Amino acid sequence: MASMTTPRLPFFPARARSAAAAFSSLSSSPLQCCPVKRTSFTNTNSAPLLFASRPGAPVADGWSADLNRRRASAMPVADSPLPAYSDPHALPLPLTSADLMESGGEGLKVAYQGFPGAYSESAAKKAYPHCQTVPCEHFDTAFQAVENCTVDRAVLPLENTLGGSIHRNYDLLLRHKLHIVGDVRLAVRHCLLANRGVKIGNLRSVMSHPQALAQCEHTLTELGIEQRQAVDDTAGAAKLVTEQMLQDTGAVASSLAAELYGLDILAENIQDEKENVTRFMMLARKPIVPQVDKPFKTSIVFSLEDWKPAQLLKALAVFALRDIDLTKIESRPHKKRPFRVADDTFSTPVKYFNYLFYVDLEASMADPKALKALGNLEEFAPFVRVLGSYPTDVSEV
User: Fold this and answer.
1) Which residues form the signal peptide (predicted)?
2) What is residue 81's three-state secondary structure?
């Protein structure tokens, strides 16, 4: 596939704690998680890896032999008690103005990745209808904009029904100290755009984001457009077609991009599969207060011991034993510990890839079952972090 360099526009410059420690009395008062550090794998360029820790647990690199022996016997149990916490830093924070912000987003600045007219901007407007949207050149820039208080929120894609997960954003969730406070689903309806007066028969090539091109591959071929040009953003492709007054090249982008950049829509809904939906996450500096009066989802990430068998089965069992459904499991390379070593069954130690596991639960951290499940998981998982507990988007797409 041919590619081309696009001009750059000016963009905005580029404490989570496992909820098992903060929501034990949530049913009686509105509380928030408070950041507490207990790290084993940190560096100066990334956010601390935060653990669902028990009081008295060692705060040191590595694990003591006694702790290893204790974890060796840990098993999923359905009635594990809730842990008690005496650390004053684990006490909940008071409500902030962000918690009381109207759902419409009045007064909010919301970052998204891409040029104006990108699908991410539409998702931001769906999440916060009255917000001020702020374009960012890269995903990392949007994360940083929230962390640095340049904006109040970010709305970024997590997964698509055709293209799967956006792995970059999963990795960035660990690098930055932000919380998922909601998700929003957006139906992606691709359009073929061109300058005024250009017909489909005049087009020899089309440009767009690689995922958009892949999602329209068969339709574009049927239209007789064989050449593809990959660029960073769908709306950026539309902008480039306009700025360069291209007569033989179109763009695959949204109808909003056509309106913003003065292009004609030559064909609508050109994606090969009509059910094309992207799920976006809403990010904030502080977590929201979990509730049980509406559908909630909780996103976590954890690692497992690298020398014990059936660890993943045990991890999933802590939720199955409590009838908690899992809606997504995503594995990503454990960059700080990329390999795990098999036991001594073989004469030569065998190294396998090591992973972090991202899991979405159909449960709120206000539900005692979810708290007990995470407390149980922490008994044998060396690292557990809650990325957010938030309302599930149940709107029509």
Assistant:
1) none
2) coil
Q: Is the pLDDT of residue 19 over 50?
A: no
Residue 148: closest CA among 17, 50, 11, 12: 12
Q: 165 pairs with which residues across the strands? A: 159
Give the contacts of 7 (CB within 8 A, at least 6 positions apart): 240, 243
Sequence letter at residue 57: A
What strands lie across the sheet with 2-3, from one edge to the other?
A: 2-3, 227-230, 205-208, 249-253, 191-194, 264-268
Give the pLDDT score at 224: 94
280 is catalytic: yes
Which residue of the set 23, 51, 143, 280 is catalytic? 280
CA distance 112 to 122: 9
Both tokens of 261, joined, read 């950049």
Q: Name the pLDDT band for 294 (thresholds 50, 70, 90).
A: confident
Cα atoms in the Cβ-side hemisphere of radius 13 Å centred on 206:
34
Band (37; pLDDT cuts 50, 70, 90): very low
Are 207 and 249 in contact by the 8 Å Cβ rule? The answer is yes
Among 18, 36, 301, 298, which Cα is nearest to 171's? 301
Report the half-sphere exposure of 47 (CA within 13 A, side-chain side): 23
What pTM did the predictor assign? 0.73
Q: 142 with 118: CB under 8 angstroms?
A: no
Rounded Cα–Cα distance for residues 82 and 73 (Å): 19
Query: 133, 242, 278, 298: which is the annotated catalytic residue?
Result: 278
Please confirm, yes or no, whether 23 is among the known catalytic residues. Answer: no
Phi, psi (rounded to 5 degrees) for 220: -65, -40
For 323, counting Cβ atoms within 10 Å of its Cβ (0-12 exposed, 13-18 middle, 19+ buried), the class is exposed
pLDDT at 397: 67
For residue 134, give both structure tokens: 């702020």
DSSP-derived pairing of the beta strands 205-208 and 249-253 = parallel
Question: Which residue has 């419409």 as its token pair?
Answer: 104
Q: Looking at the predicted structure, is the pLDDT value of residue 359 above 80?
A: yes
